[in-house]
Specification:
heterodimer, A: 292 residues, alpha+beta, Uridine Diphospho-n-acetylenolpyruvylglucosamine Reductase, domain 2, Uridine Diphospho-n-acetylenolpyruvylglucosamine Reductase, domain 3, Enolase-like, domain 1, 3 domains, five-stranded antiparallel β-sheet, 10 helices, 14 strands, 25% strand, B: 157 residues, Ubiquitin-like (UB roll), DNA polymerase, domain 1, five-stranded mixed β-sheet, 5 helices, 36% helix
Chain lengths: 292, 157
């Protein structure tokens, strides 16, 4: 049976939303398309109208304003790689991007697409959530900004309504004494994560941990924040962190994990590796902060 | 419907169906069979082409997304009588066995050497890591790219 596939090319966010309003669930936004192409070919998604966002130039940017790092939804993974190193937040995002598939797909795949696909093992989700990122959504009714940790509601499920799209991600406090690290276990370099953990630590002027963010990937339907582990680290002086609290936080992260067994790994392995990945990420953050 | 594609420096009016991949359009409509499709899922890098000089897997792009860009395939960088230094280096250093993955490797190498004309062996290995060679010619591929870098540097002098 021939399937209907019509190609639409809006050049502004407004035009894209108008098209989505017109076609409703028969239209789908097409960001980089590296997931969508395969889903469509495998008949895992069905729609009549492909609304290609790659020609909306206003959505492809990575910039700093006075308080936050702003990443446009159509910035590519390769853009993140190329901007790596400007500050701790961009460094961890660049390092994470380099773990994702290959250079020639990173030039196509987008940050917004990765987050909207809402895969539990998506690599960008944990570091962004650990850093306390927010996401700006735009629909026919207007705009809203929500914490990224509230964005995913299940496997491949988000809070996006039928005519909404992501326009940008906001990472706060990036000009402060902040360190972030992402660690994962994957079978090969191009494989998806079996377990992942991202940690973000921010110091105040007294070199005390003012904020700790820990987000776990691939151990639940959505990324999970390890709240108890965050509490363990918050309020400690940087030089006190090494005294066993890293191990405690790692174990608490394991307790927060809600892993399942599947073809890739067992529940036990994932749960136990959650602690290891979290401890590695905390260790790396401490290293970075010691040099601040 | 027909659309304009700029491929290897020439404009072509091409009939493109909305769902067709750019790799299929280049192969089937323009006969550029140097664009190899191996996995068709963006894992292997065989279909790597340059879009405005940036390496992209053509199997994951829609044909229509080739509009308004300068596309380069392996046919566009050299021909049988006038090989590009990278192509010559792959022959000299025997950087392939069956040759199916070679166009993808050459296009990846082209984009990489344009950015980094004087790479280390490790940098080459990392840059080539997005392409898979099932014959396992990797050590010779790395040598080929290093040789090509040297040839290109000498050419510039």
């Amino acid at each position: 049976m021939t399937r209907h596939f019509e190609y639409l090319r809006p050049e502004s966010v407004e035009a894209a939303i108008d098209m989505k309003v017109e076609h409703g669930s028969r239209g789908r936004f097409w960001a980089g398309g590296t997931d969508m192409m395969l889903l469509w070919q495998r008949r895992a998604v069905d729609f009549d109208y492909c609304i290609d966002l790659t020609y909306i130039k206003a959505l492809r940017f990575i910039e700093m304003d006075s308080s936050a790092l702003r990443i446009g939804a159509m910035a590519t993974l390769d853009d993140l790689d190329l901007r790596s190193g400007l500050n701790s937040a961009l460094t961890v995002l660049g390092e994470t991007a380099r773990l994702m598939n290959t250079k020639q797909t990173r030039t196509i795949a987008t940050v917004g697409g990765n987050l909207c696909h809402a895969s539990p093992s998506a690599d960008l989700t944990p570091p962004l959530i650990a850093m306390g990122a927010q996401v700006r959504l735009r629909g026919s009714e207007g705009e809203r900004v929500i914490p990224l940790e509230e964005f995913h509601t299940g496997v491949n499920q988000t809070v996006l309504t039928d005519d909404e799209m992501v326009t940008e991600f906001l990472v706060p406090h990036v000009n402060e004494k902040l360190a972030a690290s992402y660690n994962r276990i994957a079978r090969t370099v191009v494989d998806i994560a079996l377990v992942s953990s991202a940690v973000c630590l921010r110091l105040d002027d007294a070199r005390t941990v003012q904020y700790a963010g820990i987000a776990l990937g691939a151990v639940g339907p959505t990324a999970i924040r390890a709240i108890d582990a965050e509490k363990t680290l918050t309020g400690l002086r940087l030089d006190e962190l090494a005294n066993g609290s890293v191990q405690v936080a790692g174990e608490q992260a394991s307790m927060a994990a809600r892993a399942i067994s599947d073809i890739r790994a067992s529940q036990e392995f994932r749960t136990s590796m959650t602690s290891v990945m979290t401890q590695r990420s905390i260790g790396r953050c401490i290293e970075i902060l010691e040099n601040f | 419907m027909t659309y304009m594609l700029n491929v290897n420096g020439q404009d072509f009016e091409v009939e493109i169906k909305a769902h067709e991949t750019l790799a299929d359009v280049l192969r089937e409509k323009l006969g550029l069979i140097g664009v190899k499709v191996s996995c068709g899922e963006g894992e292997c890098g065989s279909c790597t082409i340059l879009v405005d000089g940036i390496p992209c897997t053509a199997c994951l792009m829609l044909g229509r997304q080739g509009e308004d860009h300068e596309l380069t395939t392996v046919e566009g960088i050299g021909d049988y009588n006038n090989l590009h230094p990278i192509q010559q280096a792959f022959i000299d250093e025997q950087g392939f066995q069956c040759g199916f993955c070679t166009p993808g490797f050459i296009m990846t190498a082209k984009a990489f050497l344009d950015e980094n004309p004087n790479p280390t062996e490790e940098e080459v290995s990392i840059a080539m890591s997005g392409n898979i060679c099932r014959c396992g010619a990797y050590p010779w591929i790395v040598k080929s790219v290093l040789k090509a870098a040297e040839m290109l540097r000498n050419e510039q002098r």
